[in-house]
Prior knowledge:
It contains 14 helices and 34 strands. By secondary structure, it is α+β, with helices and mostly antiparallel strands. The longest helix is centred in the middle third of the chain and has 18 residues. The termini are far apart.
Amino acid sequence: MDDSDKITAYLSHEPLIGTQFELFIDSIKQDGVIAIIKYERKQVIFTNLPSSVNSQQLIEIRATNTFLPTRVILRDYLNRYSYSGNDMGVRFFSHNISFKLWAPTAIRVELLLFKNWDSPTGEFSHKFNLEYDVRSGVHSTIIERKLEHFFYLYKLHFHDIDQNGKQSTRITFAVDPYATAIGLNGNKGYLIDINARATMTSGWLSDCRPYLAQKEDSIIYELHIRDFTIMPESGVKEEYRGKFMGMSQSGTHISSGNGNVATGVDSLVELGVTHVHLLPFFDFATVDESRLTDPDNRNWGYDPKNFNAPDGSYSVDPYDPSLRIKEVRSMIHSLHQKGIRVIMDMVYNHMYDTKNMDNIVPGYYFRTDSLGKFTNGSGCGNELATERPMVSKFVVDSVLHWVKNYNIDGVRFDLMELIDFDTIQKIVKVLHDIDPTILVYGEPWKGGDSPLSNGTYRGRQRNRDFAIFNDIFRNAIRGSNDPGIGYVNGDPHSADKTWAVVEGLKGSIYSLTFKPSESINYVDAHDNYTLWDHIEKSQNHNLVNGKYRLGLPQNIFESSLVRQNLLAMAIILTAQGIPFIHGGAEILRTKNGDHNSYQSGDIVNAFYWQDKVRFKSVFDYIRGLIKLRKEHPAFRITDRRSIEDHVNVFIAKNDRSGVIVSHFKDHVNNDSWKDIVVIYNASAIDNYPVNDLLPPLGNHQLWHMVVNHEEAGTTSIGSYLPSEVPLMKSYSIMVLHSYSRE
């Protein structure tokens, strides 16, 4: 039932002629209701409904023969019951604890308290009845604060019809969807005040976001908490490996022939990124927290169970509900102290299981088709109906919870097209009211067909103050996910791809965006192949798993595959917009051909820090590109007009040459360098001449090279007369600048 004036019933088979259908409310036949039978469609449409229908009533359809009685599911009809307060879930006061649960169809709700996380539902220590507000659909109660530190569940009662068509009372149990603390595996909520000092680590009350002048200054680094420190070579304490606390530990290193090489969070600081994007660390269903020593008991975490509480698999002790809260805050505070902001990967497009939400409000939280079956735009079996007011409110409240209570600095939305545009706009507004530099971005696509028409699809971010992953730019640079070939890895002479790279370098302002900050520029992420694996596999489809990254020369820059990797990274780090680095790209990370490692073991997913020792020169090269970007605002332009007037990006000679030139003019964006020229050579031509590609300089001026195929940074590698700039290596980048006013 979506409307107040119509109910549509879908029949299992065509009714016999003469069959009559009647509507009953709380066992009382509703005279005057009109039943229109659509025989061929196997539908019955009821109109002229009574105006007094309320959500707790049992609305029942009965037939004179063949069909059993059935209960009407209230769906969008429930939108009239709404609550706008900011006190849903549990709130703590000096002497009391308040509880609020939106469950407009439940005829009774009880709060059950348990001493242990694994207590059976019948073995509760305390029970309280909640009071119902008929206008909002909210059930609430207040208990004494001395009952803090109990586990809790809700017990809900509903009018229903059993399998024999008889009226019955259905009872369900549910975890509070707003629960901010939970027991092992998230099967019960836990009562603890997350704003009390007991849940705060040293320094938390003074924690603040690292300074960020503008969103274009961001450089994002994506990682999975377990992957980053799980291996012994990470140097992290054994009990902290793969945990929140592993992200907090400083001073870790791995030994090399030339001394110690920083690992873990210190490596991020050395690299120079501004943000770390953490794969999901809210409570997810696909890791059993009772057997964390199993190296294959791991997952990316895109399987939400409890949205507002941290997952226990990253805790040193998942049996302690309060510890994981402190550990997350310790992790975030440690990263903030090192100048790194934290982005949380959020998955509000589906849930691992619909049961808990359906136990609270059956048929409301998830999209269903006309037959009441879950739609599957996520590819995971269901999709949250964020367009419904109380689902939208839940999502907005959840995001605010993480930003306010954990000082999260950015949010990334999985399958953002499945989140309605109105909800995304609400989120952007409330977050930017807190801090306009909080990043909001996501995937502007979905995983399958969805009934949602108002989704946040590609292009809807234009001038709306949030960003999207620019997969058009990505595919132009390195090809489709097949893996295909792109500009840097085998198809540099494609005019379409080369011009798409040109457009991406300009922030995609002529096609996708209104301004550069709306584009997240990337070449790989946790999904699909790593950049190394993609580039190698795309040019050798016979390559088998386990045989990647072999036979590299001692001088790593002599490898064309290495240079192709570096060229791809150089493009996103010198493009307008926000660069996004998949963790490990700076050390040529391989997963040996596993392109969907969401549940693969540590042997596939772990960071092998020995790779940083082996490929330290590659790491230093990427670090130099980041330094160049951070120190020179020409690469971080905020407005399209400056790009239009002062940045000239063109293809050398003809659109099939494989060479692109970017010329930044006139101290653009107040850069200290008057002219900057970036040349991208994706062709296989070594010793490529560049002098005729350079703009003229004034008398006695020189070109100063700061990036070539082996070195990158802001310090001059060499200075040259306008006609004497050296030849260029294949699959490489060159950066030159003229007069500096410093």
